[in-house]
Amino acid sequence: MFALVDCNSFFVSCERLFRPDLADKPVVVLSNNDGVVVSRSKEAKLLGIKMGEPFFQIKQLVHQKRLTVFSSNFTLYSDLSRRVMQTLENFCPNVEIYSIDEAFLNLFHIEINDLNNFGHKIAATILRWTGIPVSVGIAPTKTLAKVANETAKKNETIVCNLIEESERIKSLQKFDIGDVWGIGRKLVVAFRKLGLRTAYELSQIDPLWMRKNYSVVQEKTVRELCGEICFEVDIPQSRRSIQVSRSFGETTSRYNDLEEAVATFAIRAAEKARADRTAASAIYVHINTSRFNSNKENYYSNGIVIPFHKPTSNTIEIIAVARDALRKIFVKNKQYKKATVILLNLIDVKLAVPQKLLFEKNDSYSSERRELENRIMNLVDEINQKFGRRSIFWAVEGVQNSAWQARRNMMSPCYTTNISELPIAH
DNA sequence: TCTGGGGTCCTAGGACCC
DNA sequence: TCTGGGGTCCTAGGACCC
Question: What domains are defined for chain A?
Fold first, then answer.
């Protein structure tokens, strides 16, 4: 049996933790740049606010004082997520952290008759230890555990289990095909045309037909809905790519602004790679203007991949290549809205070593210089970790706020990670 | 005025091999 | 009419997830 533990309205729950006055009020959290709604309280959902709704369309509710809004505070959410996951790991040796707010558990060590109690115990402990409410779905496969979790949320219960065959069928018959894990926008349209409406109807399709007409992924989804395990709980290795991208606070056509943004994102990405102890084989840089501009002809969106000589996490090297990339795709007289940097094909640094020896001759870097720069990187990371972000930074990041920097006007304090922002009890 | 960010996996098709 | 067969590896693009 598998469990899916999923935090309820996670970002909103994090904000409410330090704002008990908002417990029963409509609250939403916005994406970066205060762009769109990414988390909603139950009361906000009842107001008709949709996931992904642009903020400017619901601003009126805020002015009328019917809605409280927060900019996203990922420092806070990540810290609380870590606490939730650590709590879970006390209950189960086999936890797959699937996203910031959910985890799969393999429940092989629990007796069937104890599963429901176990679910309640997990939820109660997480609530007590972290203050975050969760729902628990228990079922014979991960896909069904997803269904169970959704069902729990819909019925406003803490635990839902689909252990009994009759419960599984009943739940699937009430479950919209578009809400099935693995069935996205495009497939919903295709399947609806075939007359499929519910998860149950999907589960009745011949898996081999599914594989032939779609792919092995959809075949597995069908099998999992029938209770056949196709996806195990797995502990993922380190990520294979690292992306840093932001929409700008204001559009800009200046090369210097873009260079500052691209360099800043490249630096952040390199920091993350070093923290993971991985090295990138290539970098992707992309810039684009707004999709929503009325002047469609002036839309511009372009990106380029440039491989590194050998895998690296060296900021100096990565900035240099990122700037080369930008030079190749930059076009004048465009109103740029967003830049993206992705480090690709990340490999374990330990594995990068033999390659280094192999290609030494072709490399513009001497190994002495590389060694020295690696030490500088570690030092910079250490200083920033000890004294806070941007205690020491690269000149190319810019020293003052620029037009491209994101808006986040309604951010809560970093209650749990910054000593000067601790909440005060009156 | 204003519309997010960060990931994974699979397939098709081309290059290349014997 | 006939012009082999069977592999592997890589990449771009498209689907999905939260």
Answer: 2-139 (3.30.70.270), 165-225 (1.10.150.20), 242-397 (3.30.1490.100)
